[in-house]
Amino acid sequence: AKKGVEMLDAPVSGGDIGAKEGTLAIMVGGKEKVFERCLPIFEVLGKKIVYMGPNGSGQSVKLVNQVIIGIFLAAVSEGLVLGTKAGLDPQLILDVVGAGVCRSAVLEIKGPTILQGDFKPGFFVKLHQKDLGLALQMAKELSVPIPVSGVVHELFNALKAKGQEKDDNSALITLYEDLACVEVRRKK
Prior knowledge:
By secondary structure, the chain is α+β, with helices and mostly antiparallel strands. Helix content is 60%, strand content 10%. It has helices spanning 15-21, 32-45, 57-85, 90-97, 105-116, 125-142, 147-161, 172-180; strands spanning 8-9, 12-13, 24-30, 46-53. Strands 1, 2, 3 and 4 form a 4-stranded mixed beta sheet that branches. α3 (57-85) packs across α7 (147-161) and α3 runs parallel beside α8. The radius of gyration is 18 Å and the shape is globular.
């Protein structure tokens, strides 16, 4: 600032697919005038560009995003493993829950790759664990209890311990599969 240089924090959501297709969600923190000047650049990269407030605001909402995605991935993992162990077709589970109130991009994007056993990274386990650690730190500083995020953080830690830190965050389901002795894959 002393040298006249402006800065924005502008984390993104949408993974590798959003980056390739230019459909990222971009959450921006900084001076609003700087945001307005940079908006044309952001519009090339994303479809949902939101000015969040002063510097740091973009990063804060990114951490909120990561908390929600992590918890949702754990919920999807638990549900699919439970249903598969009960003898249900996991594709049919995705079809029906994805048509109701559980409908989400997480189910639509990650569901099919989970059923294929494809954990090529869209967003690394190690990065999601790092972000959850930052969210837990932010929560501590704000005196906000987020206990479920702490559990999900440790689940990602377990994946790292298994050597899966470079897998996609949807590989979280493999922990549940191991515990339940069942594999959730598309029936042939």
